[in-house]
Amino acid sequence: MHSLTEQNYIQQLSIDCVIFGYENQQLKVLISTLKFKGDFQVLPSGFIYQGEDVDEAARRILEDRTSIKDTYLEQFHVFGKADRSNRAFLDRLIELNPDLVILHQQQRQQYEWFTRRFVSIGYYALVDMAKVIPQKHEIDQSITWYDVRQLPILAMDHNEIVQKAIDTLRLTLDQRLSAFSLLPESFTMKDVQEVYEAIYDKPFARNNFQKKILDMNVLERLEKKFTGAANKAPYLYRYIK
Amino acid sequence: MHSLTEQNYIQQLSIDCVIFGYENQQLKVLISTLKFKGDFQVLPSGFIYQGEDVDEAARRILEDRTSIKDTYLEQFHVFGKADRSNRAFLDRLIELNPDLVILHQQQRQQYEWFTRRFVSIGYYALVDMAKVIPQKHEIDQSITWYDVRQLPILAMDHNEIVQKAIDTLRLTLDQRLSAFSLLPESFTMKDVQEVYEAIYDKPFARNNFQKKILDMNVLERLEKKFTGAANKAPYLYRYIK
What we know:
The structure is a homodimer. The first copy, chain A, is an alpha+beta fold. Chain A has 6 helices and 10 strands; from the N terminus they run ββββαβααββαβααββ. The first copy, chain A, has 2 domains: about 1-175, Nucleoside Triphosphate Pyrophosphohydrolase; about 185-240, Arc Repressor Mutant, subunit A. Chains A, B: Pfam families: NUDIX, WHD_NrtR. Chains A, B: This is NUDIX hydrolase.
């Protein structure tokens, strides 16, 4: 559990990352399952070094877990309830994993800092899933994508953090044009509509939707998509930043 | 400078409040001018007690400076650059105010915590200026409203914080219906248009604007405003939350 050892971090401040991907008409979130007994599932998280910008720390955590550097990343909310602490989480983990030597009494004091109240800064990222190779940490059993509509119960307030990220994504999607970050380089208009439908979890009327997107004036039309049936082939588009 | 003495605060974390008011077609921000030599001007700020929710701390700071409890208040951004610190600010203050006994060597160590790097959580509030009586602190010469288009140079990154608050206000105004919080209980459609024009710093076409606002379905039409000229009197409206 090297990542829980106190280093030169700002105390009582953490970062939680909601990393969104998109596949098969589903909006997905990257969740890590800890290798301890008890099915502990959490968002990718981390801390801020004294000499590091908060945004830089978020980018480091994102890169560490996805192996990609340049993608859409945005700070969206601070979770600052006074009763927000890792203590209950750690207590339960030790209760279910009594054999976990590293967490026994003599070593516990070095994790004391970790059980204090934490204020957490939420960031969400939008990634092209095809480019991401999720990276396990030493303490992870796995790190995988979950459909946001079928999320497991996450540790602490992480379900609430995901929900707030989705709310913010919906609230600012049109102004920030962020949906395109979930798609590959080129895509059809149907792909755009489906990604919007996955984000808002509701259908849109095709003609209105298409008009709205084209009116944004941010897409370049490319060649037709090769489908074998030339006359019905849809155009491909590319997002111009 | 009681407010700078270390208490049971979360270390290296602060709150800055951008308190918006509206008057004479101007969007205004509440700024405090410190009573020391050097024209130091800052946003109302404060810290978070260990046992206090971050939102609660922001509300306490807002109430402390405006004497009002219930008004629109929203967390909007975290300012987390690694080089964000009060040290340069405090050094300059001492340089220009060498007679300031309380900041001399022997007392300086108790303010040491205050000169470290701080991550600041930005909140903006929207208030009905007529209800606010700005409250001076011991260290303030004055606390007054400034037109956002004519802000002085503020200490640290406080100008940047105000700008980000304005950007966020503009980005989410229609979805959050927050503009009405700047107006008194009842207002004319012209008042609404003028508050929007102040926020976006640009004119809107009257007919389109009026239609857009009425389509939101959040206003109740009251009696006509008494102007003396009955046939031209505009209707008053009230915002229904």
